[in-house]
Write a structure and sequence with these properties.
Order of helices and strands: HHHHEHEHEEHEH
């Protein structure tokens, strides 16, 4: 049963939800409840009137966002730096390696983007991660050193074909990078220093 105080909070949450961030929704239970209500209502509309519980919707979202057991994770580009930093630190600590590939596609090359993404999904390992941008795909390959990187890059560059504008790749640790920060800076520069609109 909803109390009067909870009802007032929910009414206020409907207005506040439009201007809320992820962090604010997580921090305020009334906003989180309203957000869940909006999502379940959208699920009901999308499925012709079937009622969904927040738990059912959460389970479907979990399934949709977790990669199958044999496929690499595919994430939004905003997670690139954090994931790359984790793998670079692990490579330094354990004496391992990590490689990065950044594929930049020409404008209006949706077919090349889809073909490249499909090939990456089929051929990469579960521990690899693909990051999506508007006209770029970046890939973090933990455990893959400089000796093997050129063959991997060549394989995927051939899939994109004429749609590929540029591919950049490097590994860490190598003599080119004196530390993890230098490697992270190089990787981020590959996403910034190109004359295309993001």
């Amino acid at each position: 049963m909803t109390t009067v105080t909870e009802a007032i909070r929910l009414v206020g949450a409907a207005t506040a939800l439009k201007d809320s961030s992820y962090d604010r929704i997580r921090a305020e239970p009334a906003l989180a409840a309203k957000f869940a209500s909006e999502i379940t209502e959208a699920a009901r509309e999308a499925t012709g009137g079937k009622r969904w519980s927040p738990e059912e919707v959460a389970e479907i979202l979990r399934i949709a966002t977790e990669p199958p057991a044999d496929e690499p994770a595919v994430l939004e580009g905003r997670y690139f730096r954090k994931r790359l930093r984790q793998h670079a630190r692990a490579a330094e600590r354990t004496g391992g390696a990590v490689s990065v590939m950044v594929f930049t596609l020409r404008a209006a090359q949706d077919g090349a983007y889809a073909a490249l993404l499909e090939a990456l999904g089929q051929d990469l390992r579960r521990e690899d991660t693909v990051f999506l941008y508007r006209r770029r795909l970046s890939v973090v390959l933990p455990g893959l050193g400089a000796a093997f990187r050129p063959r991997v890059v060549e394989r995927f560059a051939s899939v994109a074909g004429a749609g590929l504008e540029r591919v950049s790749s490097e590994s860490f640790p190598t003599p080119r990078f004196e530390n993890e920060l230098a490697f992270l800076t190089w990787a981020e520069d590959q996403l910034r220093d190109q004359p295309i609109d993001e």
